[in-house]
Design a protein that fits this description.
alpha/beta; fumarase; five-stranded mixed beta barrel; four-stranded mixed beta sheet; 25% strand
Length: 502
């Protein structure tokens, strides 16, 4: 009989969540570096360089890899010979660990969990509750997997109840292009097949905890249907040419994971859950000896990656922005932003539109300005702002036409592609959309020299801030004519990849 103390589980969960907020797993770093080395698309290679540099900076500074510090998912296996020295329920212990981690004064993590999801959507303030999956298993130990999953990648999850004769690979290849780049590729795809609807989703999520080992599988060959599917999809998904951040390139996925289980004869449930470039998970075992020890990786594990900008790169003064300047931007061009940059994401846009509909004056003049879709992490120490990478831009698409038409806004900065209604609005109003790299939040934050809240302070991280930025790197993703590099890039690179094989 093993006795596990209440605080040992609580503190171990808290320590693990802090650990994964700033340390990528080594297998991820190795796989991303290999992809960077072989990448031939300049835009994709640049994006991966930023992700790798950001990763090392976070490991050194012990600050979050991504501003979206995720919704916590815990898989816990409790041995039948374990006895608890505790007065809290198991889920309450885990949630207390989450609470400690996200309120840690030296590395405050962004609280992103909202209660009453279809009503008030009020932030719980401490990122609880976690999503918890519990098994009672033979043994005298407690085994825990802790993960933090960003909302952008979780939003791209897919599920279908296929017919028994349907081709799983064909369905996956149909879905991946529809996922766009909001899940911040390159990353992993977890696939669950069988069971029931909820079991397929659970298996897809759990598969993402496994280490990246596709190259070892390629070397030894498949020994079952799941491994055959992994190899087939790894090859075919990368041939789509979607590439890093959806800009077009050789690597879209670093690995494909597949879990399956028996299912009803009439069904074939299939789920896809992507894991983004902010891959965050850790494993520990409690054996009664105390708090779990997590061994930090060596900084030698991070490769030295050069990220260089050409001398003729365009620097833009946001304080002197004009329509004519915006209309000169070229698709795929790297731009360095300088000056005052506004922020605003979902809740702020909803409030802006509500005020416009009521004929009310906005608290901030948007004319000839740019707005950055971001919800930053709170600063610690002498930081101006915490990690401040972009959020998925498509969520603001439904607001774009009205905001551009009624405010004189000239441009937007965000993550991933824009949808047809936003592109049409950008073209109509001769505006632009610039893309910052998802998964490089700490690197982006270093370009922010000053920060202050201008409006909607009650929205917390969704308030309207004004950042003073210096050489903040972005890519022209949609120009004033409506040309989108997220459409042209993958098309070009899928054709190049096909030609390479001839």
């Amino acid at each position: 009989m093993t006795i596990i103390k209440q605080d040992d589980l609580i503190q171990s969960v808290a320590d693990a969540l802090q650990f994964i907020s700033y340390y990528h797993p080594k297998d991820f770093i190795d796989a991303m570096y290999q992809a960077w080395q072989k990448e031939e698309s300049p835009a994709a290679k640049d994006a991966m360089a930023q992700i790798l540099i950001n990763s090392r900076m976070c490991a050194e500074g012990k600050r979050p890899i991504c501003q979206d510090t995720g919704i916590v998912t815990v898989f816990i296996n409790v041995g039948m010979n374990v006895q608890w020295q505790a007065d809290m329920a198991l889920e309450d212990m885990i949630n207390e660990g989450v609470r400690r981690a996200y309120n840690h004064p030296d590395n405050v993590l962004r609280a992103s969990i909202l209660a009453d999801p279809d009503g008030a959507r009020k932030n719980t303030g401490d990122n609880t509750p976690a999503i918890i999956h519990t098994k009672i298993v033979p043994g005298d130990k407690v085994e825990v997997h802790v993960a933090a999953k960003g909302g952008g990648s979780e939003a791209k999850s897919k599920f279908a109840m296929l017919n028994p004769s349907d081709d799983v690979a064909a369905w996956v290849l149909e879905q991946v292009p529809k996922m766009g780049a909001g899940w911040c590729p390159p990353g992993m795809l977890g696939i669950g097949i069988g069971g029931t609807a909820e079991q397929a989703m659970k298996m897809a999520k759990e598969s993402l905890l496994d280490p990246i080992d596709i190259h070892e599988l390629q070397a030894r060959g498949a020994s079952n249907r799941s491994e055959e599917l992994r190899l087939e999809l790894f090859d075919k998904v990368n041939k789509l040419g979607i590439g890093a951040q959806g800009l077009g390139g050789l690597t879209t996925v670093l690995d494909i994971k597949v879990k399956d289980c028996p299912t009803h004869a009439a069904n074939k449930p299939v789920a896809i859950i992507p894991n983004c470039a902010a891959t965050r998970h850790a494993h520990f075992v409690l054996d009664g000896s105390g708090i779990a020890e997590l061994t930090p990786p060596s900084l030698a594990d991070w490769p030295k990656v050069d990220w260089e900008l050409s001398e003729d790169v365009r620097r833009v003064n946001l304080d002197e922005l004009t329509p004519e300047m915006v209309q000169s931007f070229k698709p795929g061009e790297t731009v360095l932003l300088n000056g005052k940059l506004l922020t605003g994401r979902d809740a702020a846009h909803k409030r802006i539109v509500d005020m416009l509909n009521k004929g009310e004056s906005l608290p901030v003049d948007l004319k000839n300005r740019m707005i950055y879709y971001v919800g930053p992490v709170d600063p610690v120490g002498d930081e101006v702002v915490g990690p401040a990478g972009p959020t998925t831009a498509t969520r603001m698409d439904k607001f774009t036409e009205q905001v551009l038409a009624q405010t004189g806004l000239l441009g937007m900065v965000g993550k991933a592609e824009r949808g047809p209604i936003a592109i049409d609005a950008i073209k109509k109003h001769k505006a632009t959309y610039l893309m910052a790299v998802g998964g490089a939040a700490y690197l982006v934050a270093k370009a922010i020299r000053k920060s202050k809240v201008l409006a909607f302070e009650d929205l917390g991280m969704e308030a309207i801030y004004e950042f003073d930025v210096e050489d903040m790197p972005v890519t022209v993703a949609v120009d004033c004519n409506g040309e989108s590099v997220h459409q042209t890039g993958p098309q070009i690179w899928s054709q190049k990849i096909a030609a390479m094989e001839l």
